[in-house]
Design a protein that fits this description.
The complex is a heterodimer of chains A (256) and B (276).
Chain A: H1 2-31, H2 42-54, H3 56-88, H4 92-107, H5 114-121, H6 125-150, H7 153-161, H8 166-204, H9 210-219, H10 223-252
Chain B: H1 2-18, H2 25-50, H3 62-106, H4 109-124, H5 131-138, H6 142-166, H7 170-178, H8 183-220, H9 226-235, H10 239-263, H11 268-275
Helix pairs in contact in B: 1-2, 3-6, 3-8, 3-9, 3-10, 4-6, 5-6, 6-8, 8-9, 8-10, 9-10
The chains are: A mainly alpha (256), B mainly alpha (276).
Chain lengths: 256, 276
């Protein structure tokens, strides 16, 4: 027990050292003459983060980006999850065709298709939400399909033997077994929706959202605001990922 | 358009006839069905645009893409080359550095516990917001694309290879020690083969992300490469050229995916294990 605690302390110490080294290198780069124009120092970035949150433009941008991610997740995750469940029930011959199609979709760099979405839907809420959905579509689809397929056949036949069927089979066997993988699908869905929405905003450079602000700051060489926004978005996304990951762990507790 | 269709059909019948034999018949039929679907999609696509159901400013017809290729093939092929070179440099760097970090992190359980959560968090970072900073630091040229592709690809390679090195069955190492294998022998005969499936899966993901990074970088801010041409012709509303650029970029991505799947070909069982 004591050695375990010792181990945890050492792990934490290493992580602190890494953070200190990164911040130190960052500070050094920002104060050296060669980089100072291109690198905003940690202290400067910290104060700029405070300043950004006090401006209506940034808060508004963050809110509209959040709303677009939210819409993309609320529509996209159930939609792709549904397709994934349907795909899991295909006869094995069709399954192979769909498998190669979904693999193709997964290998498609979605961002390349951005100009097509802009031609079709223009620039704005609809286009951004659709790009968010296409980013999460295949990942969530394949994860859900894998989740359904991972339920062991003996488990289902045993439940059937005891007379479980229909909705009750779904509720008592399928869902509890699939929950961890489904939670993972939701987490991937959120992360990919965030990436999709931000990519669409940065590429368009007009309309609302943090991505647009970032693009504009980059065009006007406002390195301090740019760096501060990058730090905020990175921390927010990692935090969302971590929270969903913890929720996932709670649901997998019974497996161990 | 007609010429294109017959072209595809003649390509399709070639392997089908040469594979005459009972065992090959179902395969060739499947290939024919797939080609049929492709031809049908192209025909419908062409018809929709030709009949004016969709504006040429929204969707380019297949014939428009072919025309764009005939008009600008030198420009697009040289851009494809530029993009491919940037992808290869970014991918090689991401793989070398990723493997090195993975091996270093896997060497001690202390380092592994401390660093793997950081690497995992790095994968969730929306890297796109960092690209504008990359442009400030590395300029509009090739360096910012290579650096951005590298940044996207390195963490997945490091995470997957660290996990793969850690998950090597300890009994193999015990056996190697029992037979008094040297360090080098243990590495070459035990560690590398046993961790290869996981490492290759990481490399595959890394390559896909490097391709995305390079093309995305070119789309957003650059002066060369496929992404640059796509964005340039988009502002001119030349849909044929835009779609041509997109088709070439997709071919590059699928080519990368085929190459990495080829490298993974002997590792099928382990790959499925990793995915489930």
């Amino acid at each position: 027990m004591a050695s375990e605690r010792m181990f945890r302390t050492k792990v934490l110490a290493i992580q602190v050292v890494i953070v200190v080294v990164v911040l130190g290198a960052w500070e050094l780069a920002s104060s050296s003459s060669g980089f100072s124009a291109a690198v905003s120092s940690p202290a400067r970035t910290a104060s700029q983060i405070g300043h950004l949150f006090s401006t209506g433009a940034f808060r508004g941008g963050l809110a509209s980006t959040g709303a677009e991610v939210g819409i993309a997740v609320l529509i996209g995750v159930p939609l792709s999850g549904g397709i994934g469940i349907a795909l899991a029930h295909l006869p094995s011959r069709m399954d192979r065709t769909f498998d190669s199609l979904t693999q193709l979709g997964l290998a498609t760099p979605q961002s390349v298709l951005l100009p097509i979405f802009m031609f079709i839907f223009g620039v704005g809420l609809l286009e951004i939400v659709i790009v968010g959905i296409t980013h999460l579509l295949f990942v969530v689809m394949l994860n859900t399909r894998a989740a359904v397929k991972s339920v062991p056949a003996p488990l289902i036949s045993t439940a059937r033997f005891y007379g479980t069927k229909g909705l009750s089979l779904v509720k008592r066997v399928y869902l509890p077994y699939m929950l961890p993988s489904l939670m993972q699908a939701v987490r991937f869905g959120c992360i990919f929706a965030i990436i999709g929405v931000l990519v669409a905003q940065v590429y368009a450079g007009t309309g609302g959202g943090v991505g647009v602000l970032i693009e504009n700051w980059s065009a006007s060489d406002s390195t301090a605001s740019l760096t501060a926004a990058v730090v905020i978005l990175t921390v927010l996304t990692v935090l969302i990922n971590q929270l969903l990951f913890m929720a996932e762990r709670r649901f997998t507790a019974w497996q161990k | 358009m007609v010429a294109r269709t017959t072209d595809i059909e003649s390509v399709g019948t070639g392997p089908a006839t040469s594979l005459a034999g009972v065992a090959a018949r179902p395969v060739s039929r499947r290939v024919l069905v797939r080609l049929g679907i492709v031809v049908a999609v192209l025909a419908v696509w062409q018809a929709v645009v030709t009949l004016g159901l969709v504006s040429r400013l929204v969707i380019a017809a297949p014939s428009g893409i072919v025309q764009a290729f005939i008009d600008h093939y030198a420009q697009f092929l040289s851009a494809l080359g530029t993009t491919a070179i940037q992808v290869v440099i970014g991918a090689v760097l991401a793989m070398l550095v990723g493997l090195f970090i993975g091996a270093a992190v896997a060497a001690s359980s202390l380092l592994y516990e401390a660093i793997s959560p950081i690497l995992n968090a790095a994968i969730a970072v929306p890297w796109i917001v960092l690209y504008p900073l990359f442009m400030v630091w590395f300029g509009l040229g090739a360096t910012s694309k290579v650096a951005f592709g590298f940044a996207l690809g390195v963490a997945p390679v490091a995470t997957a290879s660290a996990a793969a090195f850690r998950s090597v069955d300890k009994r193999y190492l015990t056996v190697a020690r029992a037979w008094q294998a040297s360090r080098w022998q243990t590495l070459r005969k035990v560690l590398v083969p046993a961790s290869l499936p996981g490492v290759l899966a990481g490399l595959r993901l890394g390559l896909a992300l490097v391709i995305i990074g390079v093309i995305l970088g070119q789309l957003i801010g650059s002066n060369s490469g496929l992404g640059y041409l796509i964005s340039y012709y988009r502002t001119l509303l030349d849909t044929g050229e835009v779609y041509l650029g997109i088709v070439l970029a997709l071919l590059l991505a699928y080519g990368g995916s085929v190459v990495s799947r080829f490298l993974q070909r002997d590792q099928r069982p382990a790959e499925t294990e990793l995915l489930t």
